[in-house]
Amino acid sequence: MSFVVISKKKGELRTPDAARFKTIQSQSLDTWYHSINRTYWNRNYDRDVSSIFTHLVEVIGGMSSLASNKRKAGIEPERHIAKALAWWLTLCGKLGIKSVEEMVWDKFPHACPYCQQGVHNQDICSQKKAEGTGVSWETLAQLGKTKERPARLSAWQTMFQQIYPAGQTEEYGPSFARLTEELGELAEAVRIFKAEPGYILSEAADVFAWLMHIQNIRDTKQGVSASQRGNALEKVMSEAYPTGCPDCNQTVCACPPILPKTIGRIAHEVPKGRGSFGAEGRFMPPDKASKFFLLD
Is 262 within a domain? Predict the structure, then answer.
């Protein structure tokens, strides 16, 4: 289910009124999942999974300025958390995952998957990891039956704050290091997806958990109260993805495959005159590369 607002011109967006915006903002995580993928499914249909994954990595690269304090024109790292979430949802959609809520809940049923505590216990986790015990999926499934699953995005963020509290003095750097580690594991899961699809479920859930933790660090630094936690992320998501694509103003995205405004958004340095396949460029077309590398 998703909330689409259509103007008199078929398929064209109009700005939601306050009541509709509030409804959009309170959507469940799975409703966001359906809404984002309905908007961008046609545009991403011909893209492979690796292409979607690299875009997710690109957006998280923009987020990293939260840790480095390096500002780039056109990059709002706080809004990039919502962008990263949208591309995470897109990746899950491309992989054909039925429910992202079930996927995340399978691993995080309002508890740390390793110590199985409602508040992460580092000593127990370290001991279990040292023993190579790993995750007990059966135990987590039983835990999930005894607890209430979060009903909206802000509630998921709050749940992760309760499991892994973000402290007032916590820095972004270590969390980005862990997120990078999880992206590497997710990349491996993407690479071997056809051989063993199950890896994706655990690794995608981990990436979501770290995105929530980074948002929790930001909210904690901003002095956000427990009752207001998650509201900022929901607001940005609702503004960025209200009822369709804000770039082409259509309920189903009709943007070109590569938007001009996204070229050089993260990487600004292009060597002048070298980015071509011509005589002066630094690239070879596939036929010449094949001859070059296979030449005896």
Answer: yes
Q: Quick count: other Cβ atoms within 10 Å of Cβ 60?
A: 23
Mean pLDDT of 270-274: 81
What are residue 11's phi and psi, to 5 degrees?
Answer: 85, -10
Q: How deeply is 153 buried, as exposed, middle or buried, from its count of CB atoms within 10 A (0-12, 13-18, 19+)? A: buried
Q: Could you tell me the pTM of the whole model?
A: 0.88
Other C-beta atoms closer than 10 Å to the C-beta of 162 total 16
Own/partner pairs, 135-141, CB within 8 angstroms, 24+ separation? 135/107, 135/202, 137/106, 140/106, 140/107, 140/109, 140/111, 140/113, 140/116, 141/106, 141/109
Residue 183, phi then psi, degrees to nearest 5: -65, -35
Residue 12 has what pLDDT? 52
In this structure, how many other beta carbons lie within 10 angstroms of the beta carbon of residue 124? Answer: 14
Give φ, ψ of 107 to 5 degrees: -100, -30
Are the CB atoms for 120 and 163 separated by under 8 Å? yes
Q: Is residue 168 part of a domain?
A: yes
- What's the domain range around 248? 18-110+148-270
Contact assessment for residue 144 and residue 194, using Cβ atoms and an 8 Å cutoff:
no
- Separation between Cα atoms, residue 140 and residue 160, nearest integer Å: 16
